[in-house]
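Incident review: delayed structure delivery

Summary: a single-chain prediction request sat in the queue longer than the usual turnaround. Root cause was a stuck worker, restarted by the on-call engineer. No data loss occurred. The affected request and its eventual output are reproduced below so the record is complete for anyone auditing the incident later.

Affected input:
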Amino acid sequence: MNDVEAIRFAQRVLGLAWADLPPRHRELLEAIGAEGWDATVRPLGTYADELLRSAGYWGLDLPARIGRDRARGLWIPELRVVLINAVHPDYEGLDRPSRENALARVAWHEWGHALSLHGATREDVAAGQKLLESLPSELADTIRLAGYLRREYTHEVVAEVYALLMVRRRRGVIGRPQWVSDQVDELIRRVVGWIQ
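Output delivered after worker restart:
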């Protein structure tokens, strides 16, 4: 698919992913101004930097821009928008259903970020290392090896778990997964409003 088709496809997937969110979550995201999204074929750090500067904010410094250029998705709190890279190298070789699932998961992750940044307390952020350690090792390593700062762990835990819960929800699987610790479950219920 060419760039125009990739953007159209991603925009359609984002609309479907938004519709899949529980109504209470959409309402909360709308209340905090996090219902906007955009798909692009440009590296996200560069694109986000330009959007921020054009809106009158400080842009991203070079290390932040380079780091975000590798991202599949970003939540930009200042602009209240989720950005998705519609042609990220991780999608190469995926068939359409797999690409749709991957894009939806990225969108849910970024909406999870928005909810976490809005609802997590200082105490939650301080507990990030413990929350990370309570995850299955494969999931914890994904976050740990991505180079996030300790103060970002809580938000990454919320975003990753939220995205995985949404994947399960789309498949019709309900109930708390066994791998979700009591601490993470309580956090997700409180910060995101997850009830299932």
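Verification: Strands lie at 36-40, 73-76, 81-85.
Action items: add queue-age alerting; document worker restart procedure.
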